UniProtKB/TrEMBL annotation:
NCBIfam families linked to this entry: PPR (TIGR00756)
Gene source species: Salix dunnii
Protein name per the record: Beta-fructofuranosidase
UniProt keyword annotation of Translocase present: no
Matching CDD domains: GH32_Fruct1-like
PPR repeat coordinates: 5-39
Amino acid sequence: MEERDPVSWSVMIGGFVKNGDYDHCFQTFRELIRGGSKPDNFSLPFVIKACRDTMGLIMGTLIHSTCGKPNESWVLFDEMRKDGFVPDKVAMVTIVNACAKLGAMNKSRDQRCRAGDCSNAFQFCVFVAVTVLVLFALVLVLSNNGVEASHKIYPRYQTLNVEKVKQLHRTGYHFQPSKHWINAPMYYKGLYHLFYQYNPKGAVWGNIVWAHSVSKDLINWESLEPAIYPSKWFDNYGCWSGSATVLPNGDPVIFYTGIVDEHNSQIQNYAVPANLSDPYLRKWVKPDDNPIVNPDASVNGSAFRDPTTAWRADGHWKILVGSRRKHRGVAYLYKSRDFKKWVKAKHPLHSVQGTGMWECPDFFPVSLSGEKGLDPSVMGQNVKHVLKVSLDMTRYEYYTLGTYDKTKDRYFPDEGLVDGWAGLRLDYGNFYASKTFYDPSTHRRILWGWANESDAVQQDKDKGWAGIQLIPRKVWLDPSGKQLLQWPVVELEKLRGHNVQLSHQKLNKGDHVEVKVITAAQADVDVTFSFPSLDKAEPFDPKWAKLDALDVCARKGSKALGGLGPFGLLALASEKLEEFTPVFFRVFKAAAKHKVLLCSDARSSSLGEGLYKPSFAGFVDVDLTDKKLSLRSLIDHSVVESFGAGGRIAITSRVYPTTAVFGKARLFVFNNGSETITVERLNAWSMNKPVMNVPLKS
């Protein structure tokens, strides 16, 4: 059939979906778009169903990240409407059903919908589904052309220098450059080095160099000139993420991804210090024998990036490079005897179908006992390994614990762990492109994560900066062996100033008690809650078992009265609670045991418009025998970084209050459950500002 009308296209798409042949469904839909046809009210529901049933609409998690900016999504939706697409009732029902699967219908539970006007929530659901569909089709088109983009490009903003940086929402004690847009940490000769992706010319992604800052304590930082920037044929179009390795003789080496052409073709390069006697490592050299790794014909050359820190086993150095094959996430393994000539292994270290592109892979050992970190090359019976990947499709991360067979060069996740999108996460909020390193001076493994902005690109340009590094965290294995624990590095406590304490404070249903006399916009809060009984815990609806924790949080927010919870903190709150960011626990009674939910809910965080305000959440694996739950939150103007149950869970939210700013911000403890809660102990500190990226004095 040489020519197909819209009806023919739709019949074919529908047939593929009914037979479960989603690959051909997507391929045919792509051909329909390429041929100049428009999706109609018959074909679109089928494609959305295919997306929903496989992976497409799960991409709605993009709303939790860079693509999750409402005004940009509305632009896409408006463009489709201007293109002539007007969904009928059948299409609308299908879209809403898909949204419900995704969890976007949580938006319908806002005050307007409860008042009987669901149009706003309904429109939101429509643009989520249509936007994700457009994005998914675009990804397929780009992938089939051999080019896969990782960042949204804004050429008109990339080189707009900023004369005056706005301080509103700028963090006080989190790592930020002086301005503009902001990977490989390491320890060398008494100094911590942080190399990070940075745009020196604008507040959006682009013009990327490896910026370089140094610190003696992980808290106070001085900036140096960029360590790496595009200058040679093997990186002339970009110097992207990578890692640092310190060799046994003490020499550091950087591996990074070089972009060689306008098609984003990616190769792996290395750089070495120009002067090893300089502890600040001011200058770096990119030798002419680069690249060290070229993708062969079996590898997607535009989805091949972010080399890991190297480890040594069986006489070979080894690294991973993140990639994908169709929808399968892949960690390719490369070996070298001399650290210069690298050969691809016969098979990847690990791969998982349906996860999409793996960015920023991280592979490291953890001890089965104690909290000490391990050098990347440590093996043995007292060791587990961790494989973490950043998911380009969803813009969040997951990790598994498992066994590394150094002879076969294969990684096997522990039995019972979810190896995919629903797996364990280092942080259940705004957290991406994380990287760990071994600190030999303190025998710790330290985790760095990055948090993007949740406002619009135009707002980033106006304020003159975007992106922060989160507080570095110590990471170790939980005694159960089932998950990692993490906690802010102890050096952060140097910034603690004025202290306020509460103890044995009763919180009855509906109570909120202010924690006064601290700088609530810039604080460190550590609190332990207790409760007399678990009897009032609400039953856990079996239907929720298939939902993400964030969907349960959205249904059962901080204002919804409960039994045992919600209780916790109201951070960055205005005096009359027009704005607040609640971080709270809610305990449910499930069939086998109690389920503990920790939420960081940004929906009430700001009266501002054009913001992405999600409800982030995760379930906490914690023993409730002592009937206590602990929470620590690092509050810093536009970020709330929270750790529950001693570091068993972490959630980061980016928020942009309009009235609860600077000295007008308030902090409360609250309880909206029928069970009385006791604040056993609360310590809150005003946090001082560190030295942050002032130029190093020669």
